[in-house]
């Protein structure tokens, strides 16, 4: 997990709109295995270690269902510390009976996919050692084949399920965008990320410090897909942690140079990619 700490920048948190907060809290506690850190009538933050919020859920008063064929969240990804914990999570998910959307081996990682009650995508994954990743110059090799589920389950011990381990972090986020070239310019020239893979003509992966990806971008909801309504279920914004105030100032200058918006709200700096995905620039 060296790619999610200083001196690297990384994604740490996502804030979602949900249609029914109590329904979502039951799901995220009982199925996913997170714990409530703070809660009010219409909002709650969720944690794995009891200290750090990985996810915040809000039920707007005028909330709409998640809009299909729009930009926004494809999935957020929770990174576990080892394969044994992935095995425990998979065993637990199978026991709950919650429908899984897939289980894949990407060469760099092994991952389980599912959706929450509002249709927000979730990935739960473990990285293979970075030394085992294959690079061709600046591009990493990633693929999608079926996960060895039996092998993953065999790694798990027999201890009872007590939720996701405290060392769980937000590993990456994957977004629907409307134009891949515009997105590439924003994330590379604006946020200063490196392209690590063009996945066909409809997906792109970018990162800091040669991680396989901190952010995935795709046009699978259609080129020119519209941004969803601000009050629809889905992503409000995600947090990008920058290693220093100097880097945040540099990123702000880069964003302004390419004409991307940067706003300050109560001391917090937000930007927005060309597809309408909002980002909190945090130090």
UniProtKB/TrEMBL annotation:
Point out the signal peptide segment: none
Q: Which residues form the VOC domain?
A: 10-127, 169-283
Mind telling me which Pfam families this protein's record contains? Answer: Glyoxalase
The record's listing under InterPro entries reads: Glyas_Bleomycin-R_OHBP_Dase, Glyas_Fos-R_dOase_dom, VOC_core
Among CDD domains, the record links this protein to:
VOC_BsCatE_like_C
Please give the SUPFAM superfamilies that the UniProt record associates with this protein. Glyoxalase/Bleomycin resistance protein/Dihydroxybiphenyl dioxygenase
Protein name, per record:
VOC family protein
